Every structure is written in structure tokens, then in C-alpha cells.
């Protein structure tokens, strides 16, 4: 026994020693949590629910409160003021060396015993001492769910604490003066106040962000409801006139309806015209608003024009120049979780009808996920445009998120992103909402009693999760470094602020938590990264002593410029330190520093040493700064109206999701295609636009002066039976070898069953003058939903043959249609095509595009095919016989969501290379060789119908895409297995198939989503590389190749987007067109033109040439107008 004890002691000692050694070798995180024993900071935003105040009676009970950081006693150290929803607010003075002293009562800052929310620091009276504005909300004793509002309720009066000044370094005292200044906003449900000089008169005005405490019907009498101002729910704008504030909202263009649930706002000069603009987030049905300052005391709301989509439940927000291009970008937090379980347990079903109704009612396209609006600059109308790229950037899914703070935490010159998240109880837990609540209500009704809310609330699940800390890697891509930086403590965090609390040149963090002590994080980047900084304190003139609205531009040695704006009410309910700490990496000094003050004057400093604090005074500013609001010279000048082009593709009202509940997008919306060619032989290119089902296509004839006119009436495609079909592909070719262009129109869509005449293709024969006649009995059976048609003389018999690629099997996605090769057997003016029934075409897949090209220079045209859920496919032409060489060419692992292909000798080495469009990297999907997207097809219900289930990987495990409601709506037999949302949310794809007790009939894969360049190396070898990042923001559907810039070298324009995805995925719309060049066999982005302004759901792009030498780029779109552009 003694020996055993001795050995145990030895083992224990070795283990302890090993642990000590390992801990000693571990590199500490960049942040260290400071304990209350170290700092003296003791505060917890504890809330206590009772029968009156609880999450059921006041919707925002769990929304938390703010924190403000700033030097309140002017001693050079940043102090901290915490807001408590129900507990007293607390002020902690910074004593230095991470020691703080609580002085709340002495300062007079405990606040009222009412529901506190946000806090803002501002020197409102211009005396050089920071004042404090505290917002209030919450219900009165008689208010609650579906109860009337108490007018002018005094306990919802906001407070303005004026700093009495006094001795530097002493304990500051404050005098509450909100009513005297006219900013008490009595009775309003206020989230936060934002101070800024909107009229540039030298003093600070106030934007008051408010929210409702009840719900109106968002779709009843919408226009009137949204325009009717609510006195307590609506946002308000106050003008400052010599420290007397006047509400001026009514005349300024600021929305303020009863639908308003404002959770944050961000102030920035979004369009760089020198005047501050406002972005406002909204929870629930009402959308976010983006207000441009009209410079006359009014604002213009531009969100529909400037942005393609918004967050659905907009929470915290921030605006900053994230990619260092000098343009403010916008981030808005929402509540989409990262992991599969929380997505499935918290997020409801895909409600297409409700979503469509909202859009039709005037609300924006809104999706439940974070949005990162990348500023693309000013368009020709002087309004900025944005591309939403949060999914591409890796910052779209951060759960129930609140504070969003852009700041350079590692001082490398790129702004990182810190996000707090958490909710005290999972109120949207679908088991609780659908089962627990229903049971309680039923039982209470049976007893003829009302539901006892507190016991019901106690049954809500509660989950603490980590906050997110994203390191900015290149300006538009981020990596979550929460664990690496030591910021991964599980919590329910709300308000947060950053400040250099220890004056060491990096930004520390202060985080407010619900029902837990606040968290203080010390930034150790000076030890871990050793990056340099410059700290800037602005001293403004007049009543704007902190220079709010000033712009600071720092120029580094490599000419890189860092752009900051001096606004400090940021994130969520909080205020950050009112000075700028700017990371500059390893730079030893700054080449130049410019401060552009709100009045337009500028301060310039040059050759500044790093790692110092600069105080810059507006009184020393000189000259007027010319704001760089240049509208970039357009590469493509739209001339649609003057050219006579007025075609608009108009989709029919068929909704695929009502017939196939699990499909990822609307298969009936694949039209919007066109073709270009000279059909009347006059030397000018003409263009034909295909119509949707129920809409006739339209021919436009080119004229010598570069304009268009509609072709002659009475053409055969206007016949009712032709208008009935959905045109998804147009192809001009000489079918009858008479020297003019005939036209093949490919039918597709998803509206009718397989074999319907709806899908029959049409061939129109040209008489040489542009008059067409429909060819009858010239085509074999083509009654399948098509994808593409292309021609070549594949058998070298002197006429043009056709490859007709099939898309999906109608109403049976993801099964593929057949694809066929049509041999041209026309003789003696009788046009006839014969299906060759090529074996190589029997199991191609869902074809989206194809090109005939001689890949191996043997003079026989080969066929390169792309499609959905299929590999890049090459069919070698062996003397008129097609042979699949995909595996032999090592292309069998290239399974993608391929959407387009273009073939040219891009690198000028004498062979044909390829550009390939794919779905892109700005979606919820992820795919790789080891973690592919997989479509499992099987009959789960055993009713003779297939139940396809799309799956993809999250955190190393494959899960089904559909939620429980969507899955059980399609596959009723799984109801017995998945009786709760919890059961379903925990199920992997493997679990689901096991529960269904079926074997998949078909398994399709995708392992590549990025668009590619294929360099033909010769000898049957290809080199595939991804296109540049800006090409991956959306699906690419078309390429154009010409000397667009006029420098004598050909350029590439990549175009696309794809709108018909299901609601939970959202439309893919971030592309504005990308200009590319191939240099030394590498595809690069031509940054001469940052945006081409070629947006919308683009499906085709073609070049047109005219007798006067003019060249045009013509673009067609799905369910939208076609357009034409001049260039060069």
C-alpha cells in the first residue's frame, strides 16, 4: 500500500509539473480579463422579472444596457460609466495602473429608479468637460402587452447630466438639466441619443432613437401606417439653438411611425460631401433607414436605391472605412447563429409568402443575418452604392448580437470587429414557442384562468455563448480570433465600449453583461504584436469641443491611407472613448496626417513620430478642404433610353416553393436571356430578348448610328403557343446554310410536368431580311426543360449542328433533364435536325452552359460543358463521335454550381483558355473536397415521389439545409421521429437518413463554389485558379471580352447575380460587375475602375457593333429591364 501511495504521489507530481510546463509555454491571448479585485470595478446589470416587468409584457426586457468611457475629470485617464436597467448606474474614476474608484453618489450620477437603456458622452455646452445623456424606456405600472400608452409618462423622461467642471483630477459633479435644454423627451421609449452637427452651424444637434412597446399590423394600410408619426415610438431629430433644443423631425424627412423598433444608429458622412448622414437599424417588420443629408436641414432616405438588401432584425451597427479605400462601410448585426443546432432550434421556417408580401408592401428585402455593406463609391447620380458581403467576409452569423465595434485592436492598420451577443432566455426557441406555450395556454383556458407568466418564462431555455472578435485579414475578409485573443468567455453581453484605459497605445474593452459582472479586458498587443500607434485628441472650436464629425486621414510610408471619423456613440447603447487610437503596424512615423474639421478647414501635420499622443486644435486649421467626392469616370456609359431599347423581362407569377418545398431556388426564373447577331444583313448587329411564360420575345434591329429600333411586327414568336413557353436560351446560327442567321429559342422553366409541350423548343428560319418563319417538324422531341443551346459543325459535313443541354427535370429537381446532340440533316431547303442519341450525353447532369472549341488543336470541335451539381465536363470529338474525357483530364473533382463558361485565348499563348462562373463565396453554403455540399435524393415517404434533401457542412459535420417545419412539410413520415425541434436540430444528415430508413437513389455533390480561370497548358493539361476576390461576391452568369479601356489590350468583364434563391438564403446581388485582365497567366482585378455599375439579376451580356464604328455592351436581366452601354 505504501508503494502504491508513493507511485500515486510521483504520478501526481509529474502531472502537476507537466501542467505547469505546458501553461508556461502557452502563448497568452492578446487580451487579459481583469478581475474586480484588480480593478475595483464591481457592477452587474441584474434584472429581476415580476408579474409586471418581464419579457412577455415588455419586449425589450433582455436587451441590456450601455456603457460609456471617457475622461470625465480631465486628468488624462479614461473613466467608466455603467448603465443598469433596474440597478443604479455607477461611475468609476480611473486612478491609473488599472485601479478604479466608484464615485457615483458623489458625482450625482446614480440616475432614477426607472428603466435605463443607452448612454452618450458629449460636451453639449462647449465648456471642455464631458456631459452625460442617459436614455430611459420601459413600461409604466398600467402599461404592458396590448395595453394603452400612458402619455407624457415622466419616468420615461431622459436625463442630461451637465458636468459642473471643477478641478482636474478631482471627483466630477453633475447637474441634471434635460428639461432646461429641451431634451428630456418625456414619455418616449428611448434606446439611445446621438449628438452631431447635422446643420453645420457649429453646435451639436441630437438624433433620438426610440422604439415601440406594441405591435401594429405591418401589412394593413401600410402606406398610411408607415407615414403616420408616433409621438413616443418614432425617432426624433432635435436642432440645437444656443443650448436650447427644438424637435424638428416633422420637416426633415426622418421616419417616425409606430412600427419603429430602433435599436441603434450610426452617424457618418456616407457620401463624403462634408455633411453628416444617419443609418438607423430597425427590429421586426420595419426596415433599416439610410438618410443622406440634403444640406438644407432635411434628409433623403436612400436604402432602396443604395442597397440591395438589409438585415431583418437590425440590432447594433457601426460605420467605418474597413478596407482602407477612404469610403465608409456599414455593418449591422442580426441574430442568425453560427452553429446548426441554434439555427434549427431558434430560426423559424422559410415564409416566402410573408417575405414577398413585405417586399410588395414597400419594405426592403430583409434577411435574418448580419449585413456588411461595402461602399462601392458614388454612382452617376451622386448616391453611394453598396455591396452586401457579410457572408463572403465571414461575419454574417454571430447569433443574437448587440454591440458591433470596428476598431484596430492589434494595431496592424486594419480595423477589426468586436461583437457582443447573447439573450438571457431563448425566447424564440421553437419548442417553447410551439409546444410549451401552447400547452400552458390550453391548460389555463381549461381552468378559465389567464396564463401565469413567470412560471412560463422560467421554462424558457437559457444559453450563454461567446462574443465574437474578428481579426481583419485583408480589408474584406475576417477570421474569428475570440479564442486566440482570449475573448471567448461565455456570457450574455450587450453594451460594450473600447478605450485605452492604461494609456499604452492599444484599445482595451469594457463589456456589460446581463445578470453577470461586467468584463474588463486589457489589451496586451504591445507585448504580443508590438505594433505602433498614434493617438489623436481633437480640440474643436465653439460648442463642438471634441471635434465631432471631423475626419482624420493618416498617410503611411507606403502611401496607404487610413480614414477615421470622429463619432463616438457607437455599437449599441454605448459610447467609446472620445479620441482616436490609430494602429499603424510597424511604421516608425507617419508621412502625413490631415484633420478635416466639420467647417471644411483642414489641419495638416507631416513626418510624425509614432507612439505618441497628438492634440490637434481647430484654431490652427487653415484653408478649406476639398472633399474628394469625385464621381469616378464611367467605363460604361448607359445609353439605354437614347438607343431606343425599352425591353423589360417580366416573370409570370408561378412560385416553385409552393410546389417543391425544399428546392433552393425558383427553377421557373431562369429566363432573361438574349442573343446578338446581324439578322437582316445590313452590317449592324441586332439583338433578340427572350420573354417569360406569357410574354413575347422582342427583336431590336441595329441602325447605322448605333441606336436600335423594334423589328417588324407579326413575327412568329408572338403567336400564342410561342408566347406560352418560357424562353431560357437564344441562339443565332445558320440552320439552312443560306448565309443568314436563323434563331433557335430554348424552352425551359418548371411550371409544367415533364413532357409538356410547354418545353418544346422553337426554330425560326430567316429570309435574309430579318423576317422569320417558324420551322415546323424540323426538330425532334425537345419537351424537356432546357439549359443551353450552342452550334458547331461537329461532324465536318459543312452545316451547323446543335448541342441542346438539358437543365433540370421539371418538378423533379435535382434530377437532370436529358441533353441531346442534334445533327443537321437539312436538304433541299427542308430544315431537319436529328437526335444522334450520343451515349456520352446520357448522364451529363443539369447543364447551364457549354462551348464548342478545339481544345487539343486537332481541328475537331470538342464540347466543354458546365452545370449545377456536376463536374467540369469535356467531351472529346473523335471524328464526329463524342467521348467523355473528364476523368482523364483530372476534372472529375471539380463539381460545382457552375453557371457560365466563356472561351478565348486570354493569355495570348495560342490556345483556348476558359472562364467559369460559379455560385460564388457570398452565400451561407460552404463546399470543399473534404466537406462537400451533398444532395441526397430518396423516397422517404415511400409514396413514389422523391424527397431530395440538400446538406452542407457546419463545424465539420454535414447537416440538412431545411428546418424542421420545411422538412416535415415535405416529408410527413418523419414526424414520428422528430417530435421536437430539439431532436431535429441535433440531427446530422447521417442521422436523418438513418431515421428515414432509406437508401439514397442518387447522391450529387458540390466541392467548389468559387468562379475559376482555366489556363490551357496544352497536352491535355489545365491549370485551374480562382478568380480574384471581387469576382466571388456573387454568381457569375456572363463574361464579355474586348478592349473596354481603350489601351489596345483586351479586358474581361464578369457579370452576374442571382435573385431567385429561397428566402432563408436571400438573393445574391453583391456584384456590380468586375473588370479583369490576364497578366502573365494570372487573372488580376483592374482597379482603374472600382465599380462598373452593372448590377441587377444579369443573365446575359453581349457586344454589339455598328456601321458607324460604335461598340456597345448590351445586358439582359431576369424580371427586369435590359440595358445598353457605350464604351471606349
Explain this structure to me?
- With 1128 residues, this protein is mainly beta.
- 11% of the residues lie in helices and 34% in strands.
- It is built from 17 helices and 74 strands.
- Strands 55, 56, 57, 58 and 59 form a 5-stranded antiparallel beta sheet that branches. Strands 1-32-31-30 form a 4-stranded antiparallel beta sheet. It has a 4-stranded antiparallel beta sheet with strand order 2-3-4-5.
- A hairpin with a 2-residue loop joins strand 63 (949-954) and strand 64.
- The radius of gyration is 32 Å and the shape is globular.
- The termini are far apart.
Short structural description:
This protein has 1128 residues and is mainly beta. 11% of the residues lie in helices and 34% in strands.
Helix content: 10-25%
Which runs of at least 5 residues are low in confidence (pLDDT < 50)? Answer: 1-26
Number of helices: 17
**How much strand?**
25-35%
Structural class: mainly beta
What would the average pLDDT be, to the nearest integer? 94
Radius of gyration equals 32 Å
Shape, principal axes of CA atoms: globular
